[in-house]
Design goal:
Elements lengths: L1 H27 L11 E7 L10 E4 L2 E12 L4 E8 L11 E6 L6 E6 L11 E3 L1 E3 L4 H15 L5
Parallel strand pairs: 1-7, 2-6, 5-8
Antiparallel strand pairs: 1-4, 2-3, 3-4, 5-6
Amino acid sequence: MESKTVQVAVGVFIAAGLAALFMLAMKVSNLSTFSTQQGYELTASFDNVGGLKVRAPVTMAGVRIGRVTSITFDQKTYEAVVKLEIDPKFNQIPDDSSASILTSGLLGEQYVGLQPGAEDKYFQPGGEVKYTQSALILERLVGQFLFNKAEGGGAKK
């Protein structure tokens, strides 16, 4: 009888462990929020999206308000076109708001941050974010710094 109790306890422990691993996998893969509500779509064009990925968060004032749904390349303007799905409860974002590609931490994941504008008109479904700021590419910044240092040479003032 004692052996049966131990077997049941081990089974429950294994099941709880598998459930915890599943929840961890969902959290890490950004799939933990299942939403049945369809949000509205906005489009933003960037010169460079860096390491931005589909399903990356869209935030405003540090609060997640949506997700990146697709990233494509426009062959006419040579820009990356990012489609954002915004949660329907955030329907009063001024249409002169700006979008930036930001990085959480020094080497963390990239996400889209919206800064509110001052207009009285709001984005409509299918609207376009006109003011954008591309991702900062660390390698490019280091390269510019080294180039500027080398350009100055050993000249003393």
